[in-house]
Amino acid sequence: xxxxxxxxxxxxxxxxxxxxxxxxxxxxxxxxxxxxxxxxxxxxxxxxxxxxxxxxxxxxxxxxxxxxxxxxxxxxxxxxxxxxxxxxxxxxxxxxxxxxxxxxxxxxxxxxxxxxxxxxxxxxxxxxxxxxxxxxxxxxxxxxxxxxxxxxxxxxxxxxxxxxxxxxxxxxxxxxxxxxxxxxxxxxxxxxxxxxxxxxxxxxxxxxxxxxxxxxxxxxxxxxxxxxxxxxxxxxxxxxxxxxxxxxxxxxxxxxxxxxxxxxxxxxxxxxxxxxxxxxxxxxxxxxxxxxxxxxxxxxxxxxxxxxxxxxxxxxxxxxxxxxxxxxxxx
Length: 331
Hints:
Layout: E1 3-5, H1 9-18, H2 28-38, E2 41-49, E3 52-64, E4 67-72, E5 85-86, H3 95-115, E6 120-124, H4 133-137, E7 141-151, H5 156-161, H6 165-174, E8 180-184, H7 188-200, H8 210-219, E9 224-230, E10 236-245, E11 247-253, H9 261-275, E12 280-283, H10 289-295, E13 301-311, H11 313-326
Parallel strand pairs: 4-6, 11-12
Antiparallel strand pairs: 1-2, 2-3, 3-4, 3-5, 6-13, 7-12, 7-13, 8-9, 9-10, 10-11
Helix pairs in contact: 2-8, 6-9
């Protein structure tokens, strides 16, 4: 068979590490922690050509209220993209060979998905992987999502000078206030700030639980880090969780407490990423207009990824119900 369920953690993680598209989200323990806390069944598919593992494709299945769903990634995990990744040899192939491999991957996974007869399928691919035509040819719908990245292959002065003038001036002013950015293992303040902000907007908090985040940090202490920003009165004025694996990503942020606190914090993290020889830093998410007004001041480049869907009538109704009644807090 060209597609198999993989049970070997080392085999799986080796492909994640070597693939130019592999993210921390794809790591074996990360995926199993998602399964544990989300209630979705983790399906670790590997796609082979002869005896060579050419791709992995993590899917998650759950049946809820009679509705059968398949996600990659599952909702409320804080994971913006997942989907399949190919091995390191893929990018060096000629185009007709690439298309043959993609045809194999998509056709094989599509057959596996059909075995579940799902009402709703949602797959979010990794940024920079552009060829999703085979999904369209297999009758999947496609949307485009965006994220911001800062090129770190420049001097810090060049990076700073590329920021908008107002942002540069505000960061310079804050340098006089003895702010301190420090790592922490205490999630309680982050969780409370984040949860309260969503509740104020009438939105259910989009992460499973504090324990879920804690388990991820324990599993990847070198790659997932929590930072708190304090002013000269030791008051917390900003907080963020980063992912530091291949790319330095500003992953989960809490709301701004004081003006420009987050921006100053981001600048310090840009400096940190640069000092640790990362090639780019991601300011996650560029799909909400009001948030882009702030993020775009850093003069980042745009990258995009694809959200791939299949949904029958029941799936469409469920999607509407989730957006209208579950995601929003109705009292």
